[in-house]
């Protein structure tokens, strides 16, 4: 298992918008709240439309739990469908995320900070995860405060924690792909997310 460096207070990093983490074999795992944000960005009425229209797909992890991830385009190369490239005034290619900032998936918004939650031991820690093997941002001297990042994302982190609790139940119940989709990832987008997550909690235990 990869060993990551724990972050206690601060970390050095500055994104150059090279887009290496939005292309190639990168995997962008999503939470239900990420589906909610992406669906609303696309003016959909249901989360299901993200799957029907090829923006997201379900993948099984090492614990046999089905999780959604962004479905990358594969032609002419592998890239995130929300990546938009443009040239700056020096003709340097800049990678922009169309979901930035308020619809961005949590894992992208937190990069290079990763959150490791152990639900059985009820522990969590934050670690430095290189966004891409050749990420130039890791060479920056810019100091960033972990506390500031966590404070700015507090509500989302709480929703993610709620989701991890549901995943534990899904793992213990050995839910199939169809059951997982129906109980965790299929919802209407016209309600506040706290109402949706409360409904998902009821669905997963029935
Ligand atoms: S690879 Fe690093 S520097 Fe490049 S866009 Fe991703 S986070 Fe930013
Ligand atoms: S959602 Fe945005 S930041 Fe995340 S991989 Fe796609 S383009 Fe990059």
UniProtKB/TrEMBL annotation:
Domain of life: Bacteria
A Pfam short name: CxxCxxCC
The protein's name in its UniProt record: YkgJ family cysteine cluster protein
Originating species: Caldithrix abyssi
